[in-house]
Amino acid sequence: MTRRTTYLFGLFAALVVTAALAKAGIDITTWVRLDNPAIRYYDEPANDPVARLGRQIESGEVTLDYTPSRMGYLPSLLKHLGINIDSQVMVFSKTSFQAVLISPAAPRAIFFNDSVTVGSVQGAEVYELAALDPKQGVMFYTFDMRKAAKPVFDRRDVCMQCHQGPATEGVPGILVSSVYPGGDGTPAFRAGLVTTDQRTPFDERWGGWYVTGTHGMLRHRGNAVSRDLHRPQDLDQHESQNLTSLDRKVNVNGPTFLTNTSDIVALMTLEHQTRMTNLITRIGWDTRVALNNGSLPEFSKRLDEEVDEIVTYMLYADEAPLRDTVQGVSTFTKTFPERGPRDRNGRSLRDFDLHTKLFRYPMTYMIYSEAFDSMPDEARDRIYHRLHDVLTGADHNAKFAKLAAADRQAVLEILKDTKTNLPAWWQSVGTQTTGKQEAGH
Known about the structure:
441 residues; globular; disordered C terminus
């Protein structure tokens, strides 16, 4: 298989996805122009974790270890990017530009942290990387698997065929999709494709993915393929639920995988993070464009709408509830919360719940990200004011009614202890939730 073959397959998949979105009535004209003078996506120097590591390799400050007998650069690459092995999840649907190499027997392994994802495909020539630049959004790279004196990361514009559009808020971003895969992993696009995140009902998630972990009576689309081309929605779900091992599904001892799990809690965390990342990028880009055009007053109403959207997501107000307990089978549930930070009472926004919701406290850990802090002041200040209004009970919008007063108060306290660059006014004003809001719970 040549790189041209993988490119053409990826291009075909992207065109089919775009056509399906258009047919479904989804606006496909919401892309933000990458060459906009306020953005200059390809022209501005990248400052994401992958770009930084590339500069360290070039200068000789960092040397990646290479293991010729098994994993090549992968373990060293993950180590230097600060990515834990237990974040591994596996996708077997053909939804990568290296699609022809991917199948249920040879899934793509994905590893991630808050700002970087690394994809590894069996028999491929390159690793796939996506990294969050504080201002420019997600950057896409490939990294040659072959040993070299000074390996380099190559920017890849081919990724934009699938990674900029309605599913990514119109900016270069990342996404998790759920499809109806055939026996070889080819998605039945005409049967429907769902971009999944915290809002997605559990039973619509993870078509085309392997999933390990228990979830009681809950059902998902993972670990299953369609046997009938004419009825792709009829997935063969025999032995597909509550799996604690993939031994009967795939050989996980190959050189692509560093562990034998595709952890359900890691998948749910990645889903939350994808849209959160894209929302942060979109509001930052739109505000920069308005500032550059001198049109901020005209943009004010739209900015308020975007603030409402991002605050709703940050507070998990639109999260689909869990109807049963979820439990992972890797160490991810333990190591992810350990990354902190924690307040004086030992609480962290990374603490999991997993009984009725994903996280214990209703505030995204992505509020600590460089990307959030790098937003234009005009956008970030409005977000802080709206967050504070909701958390103190001054905002009575019904969409936030499910946020318990005790949880709102906990978030206020956690942020005051752990978010070092909160606005000065946030620290000085009262943070006690109102009695009126308390009475509603």
